[in-house]
């Protein structure tokens, strides 16, 4: 049994065999923003960040998620518990029991016959409202990733949990040999996924853009500062080709005439 | 020298520049429109003595006039949608008068009978009484509004129909009318059946045209004139159509005893004890006598009998009059002796539609068959070859001799070169199935399914059936096969109907009544040895069924990779995995469950026929942005009230295999109706922004990133990836009724989005306009990528309206289907009207232009060939001459 305190680590790659369990607190669009900023779209990054901030503000209270797992068609057994002090402060405590030897063998067998590892999560809010969620992964994916799984908590607009889904770090395939001893303790990462605010037609920026263009036109600022060649190459090139062609054709014609 | 060539007449400057007018010519033969009016509610003949029209009001809120001879629509008006436009009364005098609306607004409208022009319109004053209880009657220029008020009185108000002025109002005391009593109006008589507290059933009649002084309710216990009353408290009363006051009383539950009561001037009298097994009754006035006509419909014969109401005697001869009878729920016939016309009004309520390729011709089939037999030896192959060639020879001889082909081809249902000719299979809400030729619009076959009812979505009130293509026409000699899933009207349990889509004939299984309610169904992706794809059915106690039995083996084979999901209206989604128990029995296990806790209004997946041709998008810097193409992605739309923002509209993208919420987005102060198109790696939806009071279209585009996670196959379970989501919103200056993307065979052609507008147009919107990557300032890189700069408002150019001037009303949906040509997509728009056309989103790049000059090309080619031959000769001659020099 191990209780671990969670630190907030931004980088996804930090979750390995270290004692720290990372929380990817990303409002998921930050990754999109990283990409999109390269693609010259600064206006979107601003709006989504604001909205993510807005979402965080209205929630407090303790959440406990009790986890029970089932190996194949077996009944659900207790696996552990996730305690979330508050979604705002992102402090998460994990309490998970290690896999017994019998269960480990079962998991191994299940992995070989391509069975499913199912997880039942009962979320209890501070006002003791209980909701049952169910999720699964392929048993072989759990074995292959050496028991490092990711529990994703999808949150609704008012920060209620709407989905608990289990996944593992991406693996290439199943069937490689895994040492039995590595299948003992769960190395779990908890990820929160917030809801994003939908886009609205950006009329203000567009009007500003039109305004700017109009002003520029009024100031006569549309001076073309490209070089002479860059501006008129489309006229120069045909003339050049024509000159070259007639130059090349002439001696030939003269030669032909001479031969006759 | 003068330029004589510029001799354009000066007036052309004005004439040539006038409005471009669209001419409906033969070159648009591939566009078809059929108009319908919907399920009949009221009908009335023309009041003019030699009028050849019938006026109708339907449940689709339509007022229309039909030509009695041909059944064609003379004019049609579609009133307001929903309860605001429900037609409650129709009467024909000098004007066609309708009363329509709900309890907030009731409008009286007068229409010109010949042209259908709205002559006048006025609102009825608002009352507190239920609008369903109110009755209307028109006599001359007076419109009577009759409202029975329970336990108190009956209010009778007369209005001047043309101006809306109140003429008179009085109330007749009638304390015996209870809340549960049934009242109807037959001509000017109000007839009520009411059960009093002591169990007695009273029958009362009031003439609403009586003045205040003489108005009096005539009421009597029902048993007094029906005899030993077998009618209990559930008796219902309905009017008999026609100019004579008469009602039919029947027991709502139990025995089907019907009683016709004639309300003669002397007082109500029972006319017939038990009416024969009739379909319709109508009253007429013949030579001053009140006559009852009964039409009983059995097989193909309509038998009509007539009785004089006053005396009860039978009339043996009926001369010189035509009367309309509504027959069945979906067709309207006007005939005494022979069927004159039929209108298939069921087609105004299509709930499931598919387009199927036609089978190949017999000769082509023979050729295909030849290559099917691989196991036969050389001799067998030789015999096949010879026999097929004999068939070809015979058929070519027959065409030479001008003989018709065999009956299979006589209908012309043979696949054409470009696969543009298809059959439309449509299932309708009334349980009638149709096979329609897409080119001519002709109904090839129809079949009525007994007790069939569509599934009803409780939150959106949308009706649907499920139509699966189990086998296409590609597997000769097996015929194509379709399966329709629906529910039984009486029990609510599932039923299915298996049929040949080209004839409508049931196959061996035919109509199967399943003994359970269907929760979810899915078509197996693996066909059996006969190329038949089975259907998985999940019942409400989570048992899985395979249909037909012959595909069970395939279902067992793919059980491990098959997942199902169900969604409930409260936002609970559940995923199931299919498993094979040790006893070789299929069962499902719940594998994921999520609670969105908001009412779901829409669940949209991708078209399973869709192919994504390009896996990525090439950017301006020559790098590739890979698309996130997840075939298991489903968009779930929920709508919830919110104390702060009034309405919240949320979209959840759920991977229905793993149960993960891939992406979710919320729109504040936004509400439905939401129309959603989900295709490839993008999502486009329209919503109503309550804050700005406008329709907005939002586009989401999902990308994996600059590297592709798995190049061979996508897996939801093994390597889930988090997509990058690009998003953008646009303003659409119109109201959306339906949306659909175009689909082509290989997915090479760019996609357009067809948007049906409430104005009756269908706009073809190119995807580039909805691209979320449209930037504000266009960089050269972006320009190279082919992205256009962002503009908040989407244009609706009139030239991109694909139905031109053919306005389509009450569009329910759009169905798109690929054709044999990669460039072309076939489009069927259905609703009150049915409209068929085809679109080519990237222009017809694989077809020669219509004005392609074959003659010129041939001439040029032959001339070139000749010239080259001649010059070759000449040059060899010249070379010879030079050699001699």
UniProtKB/TrEMBL annotation, chain A:
Main location: endoplasmic reticulum
Protein's recorded name: ER membrane protein complex subunit 10
Compartment(s): Endoplasmic reticulum membrane
Statement: the UniProt record of this protein carries the keyword Membrane: yes
Transmembrane segment boundaries: 232-249
Region (Disordered): 18-48
Keywords: Endoplasmic reticulum, Membrane, Signal, Transmembrane, Transmembrane helix
GO cellular component, one term: EMC complex
Protein's UniProt keywords contain Transmembrane helix: yes
Family designation: Belongs to the EMC10 family.
Membrane topology value: Single-pass type I membrane protein
Species of provenance: Timema tahoe
Compositional bias ranges of the Polar residues kind: 25-34
Pfam families, A to Z: ECM10
UniProtKB/TrEMBL annotation, chain B:
Cited InterPro entries: Beta-prop_EMC1_1st (IPR058545), EMC1 (IPR026895), EMC1_C (IPR011678), Quinoprotein_ADH-like_sf (IPR011047), WD40/YVTN_repeat-like_dom_sf (IPR015943)
ER membrane protein complex subunit 1 C-terminal domain ranges (all copies): 679-884
SUPFAM superfamilies in the record: Quinoprotein alcohol dehydrogenase-like
Transmembrane segments: 854-871
Domain of life according to the entry: Eukaryota
Any one annotated GO CC term: EMC complex
Lipid bilayer topology: Single-pass type I membrane protein
GO biological process, one term: protein folding in endoplasmic reticulum
Keywords assigned by UniProt, alphabetized: Endoplasmic reticulum, Glycoprotein, Membrane, Signal, Transmembrane, Transmembrane helix
Compartments reported by the entry: Endoplasmic reticulum membrane
Residue span, EMC1 first beta-propeller domain: 34-128
Main location, first listed in the record: endoplasmic reticulum
Family, per entry: Belongs to the EMC1 family.
Quaternary state and interactors: Component of the ER membrane protein complex (EMC).
The name this protein goes by in its record: ER membrane protein complex subunit 1
Organism whose genome encodes this protein: Timema tahoe
């Amino acid at each position: 049994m191990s209780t671990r305190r969670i630190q907030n680590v931004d980088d996804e790659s930090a979750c390995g065999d270290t004692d720290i369990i990372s929380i990817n607190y990303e409002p998921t669009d930050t990754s999109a923003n990283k990409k999109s900023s390269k693609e010259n779209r600064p206006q979107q990054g601003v709006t989504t960040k604001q909205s993510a901030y807005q979402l965080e503000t209205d929630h407090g209270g303790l959440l406990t998620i009790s986890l029970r797992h089932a190996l194949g068609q077996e009944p659900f057994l207790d696996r552990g518990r996730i305690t979330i002090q508050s979604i705002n402060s992102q402090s998460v405590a994990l309490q998970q029991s290690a896999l017994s030897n019998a269960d480990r063998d079962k998991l191994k067998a299940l992995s070989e016959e391509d069975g499913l590892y199912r997880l039942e999560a009962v979320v209890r809010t501070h006002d003791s409202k209980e909701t049952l969620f169910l999720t699964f992964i392929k048993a072989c994916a759990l074995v292959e990733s050496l028991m490092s799984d990711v529990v994703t908590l999808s949150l609704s607009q008012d920060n209620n949990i709407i989905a608990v889904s289990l996944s593992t770090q991406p693996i290439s395939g199943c069937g490689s040999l895994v040492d039995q001893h590595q299948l003992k303790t769960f190395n779990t990462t908890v990820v929160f996924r917030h809801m994003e605010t939908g886009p609205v037609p950006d009329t203000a920026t567009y009007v500003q853009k039109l305004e700017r263009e109009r002003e520029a036109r009024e100031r006569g600022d549309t001076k073309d500062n490209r070089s002479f060649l860059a501006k008129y190459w489309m006229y120069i090139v045909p003339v050049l080709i024509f000159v070259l062609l007639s130059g090349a054709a002439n001696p030939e014609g003269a030669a032909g005439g001479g031969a006759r | 020298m003068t330029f004589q060539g510029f001799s354009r007449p000066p007036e052309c400057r004005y004439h040539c520049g006038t409005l471009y007018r669209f001419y409906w010519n033969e070159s648009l033969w591939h566009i078809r429109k059929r108009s319908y009016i919907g399920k009949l509610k009221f009908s009335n003949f023309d009041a003019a003595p030699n009028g050849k029209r019938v006026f109708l009001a339907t449940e689709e809120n339509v007022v229309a006039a039909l030509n009695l001879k041909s059944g064609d629509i003379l004019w049609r008006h579609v009133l307001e949608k929903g309860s605001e436009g429900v037609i409650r009364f129709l009467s024909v005098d000098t004007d066609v008068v309708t009363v329509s609306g709900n309890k907030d607004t009731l409008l009286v409208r007068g229409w010109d009978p010949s042209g259908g022009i709205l002559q006048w319109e006025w609102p009825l004053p608002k009352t507190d009484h239920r609008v369903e209880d109110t009755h209307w009657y028109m006599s001359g220029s007076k419109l009577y509004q009759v409202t029975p008020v329970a336990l108190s009185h009956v209010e009778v108000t007369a209005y001047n129909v043309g101006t809306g002025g109140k003429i008179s109002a009085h109330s007749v005391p009638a304390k015996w009318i209870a809340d549960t009593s049934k009242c109807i109006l037959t001509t000017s008589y109000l007839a009520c059946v009411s059960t009093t507290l002591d169990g007695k059933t009273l029958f009362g009649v009031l003439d609403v045209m009586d003045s205040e002084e003489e108005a009096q309710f005539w009421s009597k216990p029902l048993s007094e004139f029906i005899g030993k009353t077998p009618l209990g408290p559930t008796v219902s009363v309905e009017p008999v159509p026609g100019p004579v006051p008469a009602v039919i009383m029947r027991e709502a539950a139990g025995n089907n005893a019907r009683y016709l009561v004639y309300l003669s001037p002397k007082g109500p009298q029972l006319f017939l004890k038990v009416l024969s097994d009739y379909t319709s009754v109508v009253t007429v006035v013949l030579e001053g006598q009140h006559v009852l006509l009964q039409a009983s419909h059995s097989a193909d014969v309509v038998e009509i009998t007539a009785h004089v109401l006053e005396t009860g005697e039978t009339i043996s001869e009926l001369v010189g009059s035509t009367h309309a009878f509504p027959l069945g729920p979906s067709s309207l016939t006007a005939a005494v002796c022979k069927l004159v016309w039929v209108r298939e009004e069921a087609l105004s309520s299509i709930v499931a539609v598919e387009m199927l390729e036609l089978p190949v011709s017999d000769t082509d089939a023979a050729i295909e068959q030849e290559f099917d037999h691989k196991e036969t030896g050389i001799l067998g192959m030789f015999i096949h070859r010879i026999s097929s060639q004999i068939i070809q020879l015979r058929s070519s001889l027959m065409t030479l001799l001008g003989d018709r082909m065999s009956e299979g081809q006589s209908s012309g249902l043979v696949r054409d070169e470009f696969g543009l000719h298809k059959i439309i299979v449509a299932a309708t809400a009334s349980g009638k199935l149709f096979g329609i030729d897409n080119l001519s619009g002709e109904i090839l076959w129809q079949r009525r399914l007994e007790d069939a009812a569509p599934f009803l979505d409780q939150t959106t009130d949308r009706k649907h059936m499920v139509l699966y293509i189990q086998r296409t026409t590609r597997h000769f000699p097996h015929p194509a096969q379709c399966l329709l899933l629906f529910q039984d009207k009486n029990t609510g349990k599932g039923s299915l109907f298996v049929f040949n889509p080209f004839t409508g004939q049931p196959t061996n299984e035919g109509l199967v009544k399943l003994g359970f309610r269907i929760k979810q169904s899915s078509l197996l992706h693996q066909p059996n040895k006969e190329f038949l794809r089975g259907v998985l059915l999940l019942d409400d106690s989570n048992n899985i069924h395979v249909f037909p039995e012959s595909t069970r083996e395939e279902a067992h084979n793919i059980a491990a990779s098959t997942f199902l999901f169900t969604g409930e209206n409260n936002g609970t989604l559940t995923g199931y995995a299919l498993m094979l128990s040790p006893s070789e029995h299929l069962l499902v296990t719940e594998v994921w469950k999520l609670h969105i806790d908001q009412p779901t209004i829409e669940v949209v997946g991708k078209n399973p026929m869709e192919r994504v041709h390009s896996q990525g998008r090439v950017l301006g810097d020559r790098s590739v942005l890979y698309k996130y193409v997840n075939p298991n992605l489903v968009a779930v739309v929920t709508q919830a009230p919110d104390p702060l923002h009034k309405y919240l509209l949320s979209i959840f993208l759920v991977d229905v295999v793993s149960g993960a919420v891939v992406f979710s987005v919320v729109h504040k102060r936004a509400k439905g109706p939401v129309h959603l198109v989900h295709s490839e790696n993008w999502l486009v939806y329209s919503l109503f922004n309550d804050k700005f009071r406008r329709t907005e279209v939002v586009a989401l585009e999902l990308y994996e990133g600059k590297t592709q996670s798995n190049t061979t196959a996508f897996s939801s379970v093994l390597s889930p990836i988090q997509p990058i989501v690009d998003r953008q919103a646009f303003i659409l200056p119109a109201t959306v009724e339906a949306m659909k993307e175009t689909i082509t065979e290989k997915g090479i052609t760019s996609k357009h989005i067809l948007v049906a507008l409430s104005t009756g147009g269908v706009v073809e919107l190119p995807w580039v306009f909805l691209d979320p990557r449209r930037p504000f300032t266009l960089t050269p890189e972006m320009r190279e990528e082919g992205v256009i700069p962002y503009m908040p408002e989407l244009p609706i150019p009139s030239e991109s309206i694909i139905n031109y001037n053919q306005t389509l009303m009450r569009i329910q949906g759009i169905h798109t289907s690929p054709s044999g040509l990669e460039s072309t997509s076939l489009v069927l728009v259905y609703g009150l009207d049915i409209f068929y056309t085809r679109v080519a989103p990237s222009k017809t790049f694989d077809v020669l232009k219509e004005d392609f000059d074959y003659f010129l090309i041939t001439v040029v080619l032959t001339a070139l060939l000749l010239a080259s031959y001649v010059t070759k000769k000449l040059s060899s001659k010249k070379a010879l001459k030079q050699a001699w020099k």
